[in-house]
Inverse folding.
């Protein structure tokens, strides 16, 4: 049954991604940034310089390898990873989220944000798992997963304080170990960000060039793009935010914090602010009926708003 759902889910997502791609009349600025940057890097005498000074670098590698097909590759890879790796209790919520236009269009228009949301959700779900039961091994893997987001999207810098705060406050560990947890939360992310600073200094003569130059930095490039309506951002978030209020303090803190930082950095995530909360909600390690309810509500509301022309426009 699980293998059938994996195959069926992958086929459904692939078909929907293909159909929605055909409806797209233009490339989203995020995709344009990576495709243009890939074109520049191919013509450099030293392509490694162009890759290492670009922030974030890993989506650029995908754009170099797969060209215009890299958003589709991101969507299929994320689908396979989620359906093959989640626990049985989370399979249905994850499947429903994958069928949402937030995920499907997010993959087509914001592939780097989709990858970031996936790994950030894995990191936050590890914290939730350590709240429900003491699982230091999973917490360590969650730190590594979140640290990886430093190479995926600039929104990670905004949400790093929330991740560190949750890591220190929420897990059931003694007070002396909380400092260790904070260091473990910060180290993978800051180490990868430090590499960008180093290569910026080596190749460009200015350490902050990967974060300040609009030709090198996705964050700076997107800051000049007009953001869509705030309504399209908030409504798909509401089912998760509302249900988190009834699922304990830890989940309320997480979803409220993610919503707050998404609103503060709208140019980086709009109109897909619900992408990270949707994946995190579906990956919640504590099985409860609200998981399916939230996923169904999100799916119904987001498709209704999409066909009404309000969502993701």
């Amino acid at each position: 049954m699980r293998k059938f759902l994996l195959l069926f889910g992958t086929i459904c997502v692939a078909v929907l991604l293909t159909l929605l791609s055909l409806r797209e009349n233009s490339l989203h600025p995020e995709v344009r940034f990576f495709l243009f940057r890939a074109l520049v890097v191919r013509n450099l005498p030293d392509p490694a310089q162009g890759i290492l000074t670009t922030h974030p670098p890993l989506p650029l590698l995908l754009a170099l390898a797969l060209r215009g097909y890299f958003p589709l590759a991101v969507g299929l890879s994320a689908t396979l990873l989620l359906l093959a790796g989640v626990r049985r209790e989370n399979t249905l919520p994850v499947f429903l989220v994958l069928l949402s236009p937030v995920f499907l269009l997010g993959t087509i228009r914001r592939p780097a944000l989709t990858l970031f949301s996936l790994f950030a959700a894995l990191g936050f779900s590890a914290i939730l798992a350590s709240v429900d039961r003491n699982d230091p091994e999973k917490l360590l893997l969650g730190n590594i997963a979140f640290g990886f987001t430093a190479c995926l999207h600039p929104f990670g810098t905004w949400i790093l304080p929330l991740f560190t705060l949750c890591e220190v406050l929420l897990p059931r560990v003694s007070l002396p170990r909380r400092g260790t947890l904070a260091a473990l939360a910060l180290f993978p992310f800051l180490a990868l960000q430090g590499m960008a600073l180093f290569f910026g200094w080596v190749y460009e003569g200015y350490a902050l060039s990967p974060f300040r130059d609009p030709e090198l930095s996705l964050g700076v490039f997107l800051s000049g793009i007009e953001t869509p309506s705030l309504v399209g951002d908030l409504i798909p978030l509401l089912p998760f935010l509302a249900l988190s209020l009834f699922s304990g303090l830890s989940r309320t803190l997480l979803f409220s914090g993610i919503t707050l930082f998404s609103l503060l950095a709208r140019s980086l995530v709009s109109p897909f602010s619900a992408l990270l909360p949707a994946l995190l909600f579906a990956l919640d390690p504590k099985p409860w009926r609200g998981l399916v309810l939230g996923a169904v509500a999100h799916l119904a509301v987001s498709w209704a708003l999409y066909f009404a022309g309000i969502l993701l426009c």
